[in-house]
Amino acid sequence: MSQEPVAIIAGGGEMPLRVAAACRATGRPFVAVLLEGFANPADWAGEKTMVFRLGAAGAAFDWVKASGARQLVLVGHVKRPSLLSLRPDAKGAKFLARIGMKAFGGDDSLLSALRQVMREEGFEPIGPTRFLQEAQTPPGLLTRVGPDAGALADIRRGVEVVRALGAADVGQGAVVQQGLVLAVEAIEGTDAMLARAGGLRREGPRGVLVKLVKPGQDREVDMPALGPRTVEGAAAAGLAGIAFEANGALLVDRDVMVAKADSAGLFLLAIRPDDHVGPAAAGAAI
Predict the structure, then answer these.
(1) Domain that holds residue 11
(2) Which of 100, 128, 156 is the last residue before a domain boundary?
(3) Helix (H, G, I), strand (E, B), or coil: what is residue 142?
(4) Judging by beta carbons within 10 Å of its beta carbon (0-12, 13-18, 19+), is residue 273 exposed, middle or buried?
(5) CA distance 7 to 31
(6) Among the three residues 81, 110, 128, which one is the final residue of a domain in this structure?
(7) Nearest-CA neighbor of 69 among 7, 14, 126?
(8) Are residues 273 and 143 in the same domain?
(9) Residue 89 in 3-state DSSP?
(10) Which Gene3D superfamilies match (predicted)?
């Protein structure tokens, strides 16, 4: 692995800190660009960091170049701001002009444009999977309890819905109960979607959360992440379990997730989506 520093563009959550820990473990130097309002500077005490607001991209890129880093890893959750709130610096305004109408599209359109700008600036965007291979999961059941026939049917319906959402570059998740779509994920994110779904649940067999990679999504740079909070939200929403794309999601604190799911009687199932479409999907193997 190259010994030139990598720049961690850090949003909120645990994943940026895990990438930093992986760098330390392998001896890879790094610098961290902390997104104001998302990454907590106290978590990065003692490291070489700068804090910047999203509109000050010019200053951030100049700082990263001065550090000697050419590879950038974007990791962590970020709520997209309104364009009016960005207050871009001079270089940031030029970046926005280069991104153009893609800034108003879905996440994939915006991220694709951002990666292109980064490459034009001489950087190489890379994904957290380079550092966190253990956070991905092959197909299979992680928990003691698995889905019953009704949950498998809901997974099938969820795969259909989430694929349609993803094709429109809207979201990566949906909650389905008894064949009914209780909620779909948009800009609010998974946690808010689960909270909304909890108020819409019906009597009878519990529903499922389905989380997939969007068609055309860059798995190297942008993959959905699930963590203990996701399990807590699913339990609070009264769901039976979570189905997510095998090798298509990053699991934060996998052991904690599994323990929480087992305690709540939920299943965690890594699926191949193609196994859960078509007439035979209701009997798909787990």
Answers:
(1) 6-128
(2) 128
(3) coil
(4) buried
(5) 5
(6) 128
(7) 7
(8) yes
(9) coil
(10) 3.40.140.80, 3.40.50.20
Q: What are phi and psi of 160, to 5 degrees?
A: -60, -45
pLDDT of residue 77: 75
d(CA 237, CA 233): 6
Q: Is 189 left (phi over 0), alpha (psi -120 to 50) or beta?
A: left
Distance CA 162, CA 248 (A): 14
> 169 — alpha (psi -120 to 50), left (phi > 0) or beta?
left
Distance of CA 150 to the CA centre of its chain: 27
Residue 148 lies in a domain: yes
Asked if 227 contacts 255 with a C-beta cutoff of 8 angstroms, the reply is: no
Note whether 86 and 55 are within 8 A (CB): yes
**Nearest-5° Cα angle at 173, 279 to 149:** 35
Question: Which positions ≥6 away from 271 have C-beta within 8 Å?
Answer: 139, 155, 159, 243, 244, 245, 246, 286
Weakly modelled stretches of the chain, pLDDT under 70:
1-2, 54-55, 78-114, 134-135, 216-222, 278-286
38 with 165, same domain?
A: no
Do 152 and 256 belong together in one domain? yes
* 177 and 264 fall within a common domain: yes
- Give the integer Cα–Cα distance in Å for 219 and 99: 21
What's phi and psi for 217, nearest 5 deg? -70, 140
What pLDDT, on a 0 to 100 scale, did the predictor assign at position 109? Answer: 46
> Which residue shows structure tokens 């980064």?
118
d(CA 135, CA 285): 23
- pLDDT, position 104: 47
Q: Which strands form 173-177's sheet, in the order they lie side by side?
A: 140-141, 267-271, 241-245, 208-211, 173-177, 180-184
44, 147: one domain: no
